[in-house]
Specification:
The chain is mostly helical. The protein has six helices and six strands, in the order H-E-H-E-E-E-H-H-H-E-E-H. Strand 5 and strand 6 form a beta hairpin.
Length: 180
């Protein structure tokens, strides 16, 4: 920061083998780095939370991973600035994802504002229990944009929207307060 005269700190991390930010080690490391900046500097801190889920778009695991990373980041003192995900091209699969994943990240970040780190830690542990055993094997591949969205109307297909709303209900049970 002294060399580049930056005005924003963004500690980022991705597990080298699992290729996700939502594994236990990355959640801990990212939270620790963000808390260190928040407590010891006046530099605004951003975090990508979990824009690198192991699971593919349109799956519950994808939403769990994205939520775990963003809840941990926000409760630790970061502004989650990425707003997007990095699954739009995987290998030869194009259009791998949809805008609903980015909406999820934004809604989770807003709903997490004000959470104490201790509560965020409890939520992260609960979420890890839902997907941690699938990070290395049996990770759901996910779906393309045209599988998740009505391409003509550019709206989520009903089954995807139902899953999304069901997940929001589950997260309300953790104490997150969604605006809609």
């Amino acid at each position: 920061m002294l060399v580049t005269q930056s005005e924003l700190a963004g500690p980022n991390y991705v597990h080298n083998r699992l290729k996700t930010r939502a594994c236990r080690a990355c959640l801990w490391t990212g939270s620790l780095a963000v808390q260190a900046f928040a407590r010891n500097s006046r530099i605004p801190t951003s975090s990508n939370g979990c824009d690198h889920p192991a699971a593919g778009p349109g799956t519950e695991q994808y939403l769990y991973e994205a939520a775990a990373g963003n809840i941990a980041a926000v409760a630790s003192g970061a502004a989650a600035l990425s707003g997007g995900t990095r699954k739009f091209v995987i290998g030869k699969v194009e259009d791998f994802g949809s805008p609903l994943e980015s909406r999820w990240m934004g809604e989770v970040c807003k709903a997490s504002a004000g959470l104490k780190p201790e509560r965020a830690n409890e939520i992260a542990k609960a979420l890890l229990s839902r997907y941690e055993d699938k990070l290395e094997k049996n990770t759901p591949f996910g779906f393309t944009f045209s599988q998740l969205y009505d391409v003509e109307k550019e709206t989520p297909k009903p089954e995807y929207l139902r899953m999304y709303e069901r997940m929001k209900d589950e997260f309300r049970g953790f104490g997150l307060k969604f605006r809609s």
